[in-house]
Design brief:
The protein is an all-alpha fold. It contains three helices and no strands. The protein starts with a helix and ends with a helix.
Length: about 90
Amino acid sequence: MFKTKKDFINKIHLIISVCLVMPVSFVYGFNPSSEFDIQLQTIDEHNFFKAIMGLYLGFSALWILGIFKHQYLKIAVITNIVFMLGLGFG
C-alpha cells in the first residue's frame, strides 16, 4: 500500500476524502432528515437520496482502488478533483 513516506503523502487526500464521503453517503441514503430539514413523502424522494448515496459510494470505491493499486491512482486523483470542485461550486 505505502512503500515510502512520499507515497503516503501523495495519497493522503484520497484517504481523507474516503473517510469524509462514506459516512455522508450513508446519511444521504438512510436518514437524510437527520441532517436536512426535509420530510420525504414518496418512494421517488427516497430513491433520489439513495441514488446520491450510490454515487458517493462509487466514487469512494474508486478512490480506495487508487490508494491500493498504482494503476488507478491517476483516475482516482482526477475524479477526486472533479468531485470536490463540484461540491465547492454547487
